[in-house]
Amino acid sequence: MSKTRRDFLKLAGACACTVAASQLVGANAQAADAGHGGHAPAVAQPANQHDNALHGTHWGMVIDTKRFTDPLLVQKCMDACHLTHNVPKIDGPQELKWIWAASYLETFTEHNHYLPESVEQRSFMLLCNHCENPPCVRVCPTKATFKRAWDGIVQMDMHRCIGCRFCMAACPYGARSFNFNNPRPYLDETKMNPDYPTRMRGVVEKCTFCVERLAQGLMPACVEASDGAILFGDLDDPHSSVRKALASKFTVRRKVSLGTEPSVYYII
Amino acid sequence: MYNAKYIMPGLVIFLGLITFPLWFNVLSCTRYEAPKLALPADQQECIIDTKVMRAEHMTLLNDWRDKYVRDGEVTFTAANGKLYDMSLMNTCMSCHTNKEQFCDACHTKNSVYPYCWECHIAPRGNQ
Amino acid sequence: MLEKALKGSPLYWFWLFFLACVAGVGSMAYLYQLNFGLGVTGMSRDVSWGFYIAQFTYLVGVAASAVMLVLPTYLHHYKAFKKMIILGEFMAIAAVSMCLLFIIVDLGQPQRAMNVILHPTPGSILFWDMIVLNGYLFINLLVGWVTLQAERNEVAPPKWIKFFIYLSIFWAFSIHTVTAFLYAGLPGRHYWLTAIMAARFLASAFCSGPAILLLLAFLLKRLVNFDPGKEAIKSLAKIITYAMALNVFFFLLEVFTAFYSDIPGHKAPIVYLFSGTDGFAQWTPFMWLAAILAFVSLALLIPAKLRDNHELLPWTLLFLVLATWIDKGIGLLVGGFTPNMFETVTEYIPSIPELAIVLAIYAMGAMILTVLWKIALGVKQEVGHF
């Protein structure tokens, strides 16, 4: 199914290329690169970008779980994200988190017995999978959560969310958090990032693959903090770091049988 | 008219009450005085003409918000060709560093309470 | 006809006053929730829907059940329900009103609720639920009011209303089907991911709704001596029996599928609900109570002798309502969210403000029902129909 859809998109993209080639010339060099790799973008990249912005047509992540044996690295990645995005620290079941660590058994709910101890003791970084076929987007009644057509990122519009939490019921990865309370009192004012908003009570939030950093030419915060243990790049580009890693290492994704097509891969 | 002796005075009282703010202001001769705003000392021009901004800033902010969040656009080109980031916190408030005497001064006076600041962080150097 | 609601016995006024007090207390709790956020409820990151959405789901069923009176009357020209059909339609109005209120109190940003209309998203089932619920409310208001007016004027209802009556039959099925689709279309929620979810919803609706209606009819008989008629009670009890049998049967189908296939994900919620997981077993007694009450009610419904015994029937119905309410008004939600996406358990305990808000909405629904039924019975009394 997903093959045929992708083929259709490719065809549509190719048609768009021939018909409106002149319009696409303005698109950035990276998108053209991706087209060279056989994945012509179906949608043109948005206008009004900084020159140094990072462009991709399907952002993805490869997490080298072998590197996550050090709890300090886990904490470093979490802090990088949560401090950048002003994610409040709330203890208990009403917590909020964009990226966090879990055990193998919690991460991969279909698992084998007699695993090597090293795997069982590893930490697995969990975050939004930015699915190709995201159920959260499908169920949202206001398009407050949506998939960016040009780069595949599943983004949230906090201004529009009505807080119905349908997306939380729909996400099979538990990647979404709800602001049960006003998050401000739970933030350390001295450590708040003054360049990024907080959220208000009553809206859902989650990892955004750092869209605001990509637009400024920066890698996502967790990637930057991970000392190379997390790779980030364009899955449509065969020369990207993520594709090279996928081609050379054995990787798995979470709950593939559900057909959501996660964009986050784990090197085991 | 059916029950006119109750309805007519009732209507008069109702209309009187609902228009109270109008005639109260006329009678008491209160005049609206535009609040004095703290303007950035080191800047000569805004991204758009001040007059337009005064009337349309909310439309512009809504437009920016949709463009930035939903359409992935990042920069705004002013009439003079200068590039700005579409950002309330990082563009607007980097010049208008005094929220109390800029945003709030007018909004409070006009009983407008936008909820921008429930999420967006007011500038730090707020003196 | 509204003036009929303004004249009543002291008991009527005391009852309304009592309901207003309950609604008032709950409204204070809601103001508290509005100010502090849904953090005042027992919901969590893992159990992100709770009592509100559960009550909403149960009451959609109650609303849909009016069709069990309308369908035989208008499609099969069955006369016996004529006298109480208006009670069913008005109960649907009260139930849908409560549904809408439960949705509103569950929203994190209720002041943005109109976004569902401002940014319509036909791909979202919630969008369609908004449409079918409001549509059903409108249709029942229209049909109820027009037919009652005709009864008062002792004329046949206008011909054009027939269209809306037939529409209401299809619409009743749609509201509960769409509500079932809210749950049945979510990947990874094994307890909900079942093709017979809509069928289960309809079966449980068509037993619990008429059961509540019949219980209230028994109450009316005591209070104001309104008798829907032996024949009507007999037929409705029969409908309840078949629907409850189907309801239990459908649940057993789920149990078979989960346990014979032996797929862990499908078994996990049922195991959690009926015997607990990792030491968490908070809802186990409730679920067993529901199971026992369901079988007891069936045992008392299936033999015609017991079913037609009007001393026993109210108790049977009470058992049935309790069983279906536990199953759908809490078990369904908790089972969908537990175990969570990481196969661990976070238990859900509704908070006091949450329960106060639930009670308040039930009180508001009861107020709507009381006033509407007062009007309907007032009209019936006026024209000498009881």
Automatic annotation (TrEMBL), chain A:
It comes from the Bacteria. Transmembrane segments: none annotated. Keywords: 4Fe-4S, Iron, Iron-sulfur, Metal-binding, Signal. InterPro entries: 4Fe4S_Fe-S-bd (IPR017896), 4Fe4S_Fe_S_CS (IPR017900), DsrO-like (IPR054822), ET_IronSulfur_Cluster-Binding (IPR050954), TAT_signal (IPR006311), TAT_signal_bac_arc (IPR019546). Residues 152-181 form the 4Fe-4S ferredoxin-type domain. This is Putative dr-like menaquinol oxidoreductase iron-sulfur subunit 1. Heterodimer of a large and a small subunit. GO terms for cellular component: periplasmic space. The lineage of its organism: Bacteria, Pseudomonadati, Thermodesulfobacteriota, Desulfovibrionia, Desulfovibrionales. Residues 1-31 form the signal peptide. PROSITE patterns: 4FE4S_FER_1 (PS00198), 4FE4S_FER_2 (PS51379), TAT (PS51318). The keyword 4Fe-4S applies. It is found in: Periplasm. CDD domains: PsrB. GO terms for molecular function: 4 iron, 4 sulfur cluster binding; metal ion binding. The keyword Metal-binding applies. The gene is dsrO.
From TrEMBL, chain B:
It comes from the Bacteria. Keywords: Membrane, Transmembrane, Transmembrane helix. The chain crosses the membrane at residues 6-27. InterPro entries: DsrJ (IPR047668), Multihaem_cyt_sf (IPR036280). This is Putative Periplasmic (Sec) triheme cytochrome c. It comes from Megalodesulfovibrio gigas (strain ATCC 19364 / DSM 1382 / NCIMB 9332 / VKM B-1759). The lineage of its organism: Bacteria, Pseudomonadati, Thermodesulfobacteriota, Desulfovibrionia, Desulfovibrionales. The gene is dsrJ.
UniProtKB/TrEMBL annotation, chain C:
GO terms for cellular component: plasma membrane. Keywords: Cell membrane, Membrane, Transmembrane, Transmembrane helix. It comes from the Bacteria. PROSITE patterns: PROKAR_LIPOPROTEIN. It is a multi-pass membrane protein. It is found in: Cell membrane. The keyword Transmembrane applies. The chain crosses the membrane at residues 12-32, 52-72, 84-105, 125-148, 160-185, 191-219, 239-260, 280-301, 313-335, 355-377. Its main location: membrane. PANTHER family: POLYSULPHIDE REDUCTASE NRFD, PTHR43044. Belongs to the NrfD family. This is Putative polysulfide reductase NrfD. It comes from Megalodesulfovibrio gigas (strain ATCC 19364 / DSM 1382 / NCIMB 9332 / VKM B-1759). The gene is dsrP.
